[in-house]
Amino acid sequence: MMGGIDRRTIGRWALTGTAALTLFYILMPLISVTWLSFYAQEIPSFPPQGYSLRWYASIVGNERFVSGLLLSVQLGVSATAIGLAVGVPAALCLSRFRFPGREALNNLLLLPLMVPGVVLGTALYVFHVEAEIATGGEFQILGSTVGLLSGHVLVVIPWVVRLVLASLAGFDRTLEEAAHNLGADRWTTFRRITLPGILPGVVAGAMFGFVASFGNLEMSLFLVGPGRTTLPIAILQYLEWKIDPSIAAVSVVQIVLIGAAMLMTDRFVKISRVV
Amino acid sequence: MAAGTTAPARVEERGGSILSAASLIGPATFIVAAGLLIPIAILFRYSLNKFVPRLLMVEAFTFENYVKFFTDAYYIGVFLTTVQVALACTVICLVLGFPLAYVLARTRTRFKNVLVMLVVLPLFVGNAVRAAGWMTLFGSKGIISVGLMGIGITSEPTEIMFTTSAVIIGIIAVNLPFMVLTLQSVIESIDRSVEEAAFSMGAGPWHMFWRVLWPLALPGIAAGVILTFILGMNAYATPVLLGGPEFKMMAPLVFGQMQLGNWPFGAAVSFILMITTLVLTMIAGFRLQKRYRR
């Protein structure tokens, strides 16, 4: 029996050790890019010759990254708003009504998540080309903000539908019936009873949707116009050319923004329960 | 939104109910159907067109783009590289991810939420930023190369950038959070007492893992494997940045062809990528399901 206990202890240590290594592995790129952003010299050679904050100061003057950040935030916020406006009712419908083809509709709404980003980008690109031809070239769709936004809405919808649906599954419907019996109409019932009940799902859907839109790279690559790029694309294009502390500082800004969004969401709903 | 203002609450007529169901789900369905299905149909149509240099695209009905892909050694090479890289990454993700998922699922500390957030944060930060992190480490003057020379293992700078290893290391890091989170949720659903039962009957940890945990976790393992495989097949930023211009996988190939203006071939490669992913995923899902039933 003693042997068994020893083996269990060894097993536990091996397990915890591997888990810690894996976590370190996952975090390593974030740690190293943060470190690089504080290097004093421009060439990313190790060990650094000193540390400096000047790369952070230089971001403000970099038109490309500032406008990329603004465009990404605008896109993320608008796409999330539209995604919530159409996604929450859709989730309500899927959980409340039984009708033929319900499963198929559910799958359809989750489909944008399944289609590879590059395929989605290519498909939307040719769609925009055809749309421009069909309208006689009067409207510019390719590379326009509207075209880009429509793609981002597609990316947000599955997250909202999925997380709100999950929330609705655990929601006690007798509360709604009680509200009905007390004379509340549907809209009041939704606003005062259902919405507060599924709020964690709505917040999580909004946050995941925003992050999916904000960080989207592959699809957006096909849809941005000349001279107007989102932040992830600006970062990618810079990195194709070179790596230096200034791009590292921009990356850290993105890490901090997303970390802040996560911490804010965590106040409403524990991240460990929704992922 | 519109649904709230339709029929009064207590009038549950059948017609009204269908109408409100339609008005609830209609907008989202329209956006996805028009914004995704139609574009994919057009993309497929494009893949049957002909590419003529100077004229770009000529309307046709031919499978020559698909034939070209599977008869040209270069493209077959790109295809095989992609499948191999995706497979390697998936296997390593499973091996590395399981212990972390297990610890996250079973931990009783109050830091659990923090740990989960540490796994989720890199996932949300995006692939380009994480590639930047690896580029810092991999360069010939980066910490790995300098460190190896410092210890005396190597005397020359090690060039990891622009190798297949660099791409695989990068994609594993990108896909690990997906694997870990999927496995964690399935392990959480397994009652801890079955593990205790195995131990109390004298099973060692390894034995318990293979005979109890693994079979019970198999549906989650299947989901995690499929997800990471799909993501590996479709990786874009990591191969572009860590593999360099010579290293080609399917997703960068699609982008390159579209940029060159060869839309029909780009469309065909997109379709090959999507269909291969779907088919391999279905085979994996089916096989695992069969084993699970037994």
Automatic annotation (TrEMBL), chain A:
Domain ABC transmembrane type-1, first and last residues per copy: 69-265
Location in the cell: Cell inner membrane; Cell membrane
KW Cell membrane (keyword) present: yes
Biological processes, Gene Ontology terms: transmembrane transport
Residues spanning the membrane: 12-38, 65-92, 104-127, 139-165, 193-214, 246-264
Keywords for this protein: Cell inner membrane, Cell membrane, Membrane, Transmembrane, Transmembrane helix, Transport
Main location: membrane
GO CC annotations on file: plasma membrane
PANTHER family, alphabetized: INNER MEMBRANE ABC TRANSPORTER PERMEASE PROTEIN YDCV (PTHR43357)
Name assigned to this protein: ABC transporter permease
Organism: Thalassobaculum fulvum
Higher taxonomy: Bacteria, Pseudomonadati, Pseudomonadota, Alphaproteobacteria, Rhodospirillales
